[in-house]
Write a structure and sequence with these properties.
Blueprint (H helix, E strand, L loop, with lengths): L16 H17 L16
Amino acid sequence: MRVLIVPMAAMAEIGDLPQIKEVYTNIIEKMNENNIQIWDDIYPCEFFS
């Protein structure tokens, strides 16, 4: 039997919110470019405020 050990991801901190919001903004832009328009400029990014 093989055991795969995966390191745990670090929890985000309050100072990480600008980068997290930017990631979501980029995801929304790419989804819109591919005609997958389920999010907008408000959701989900404004929930990070």
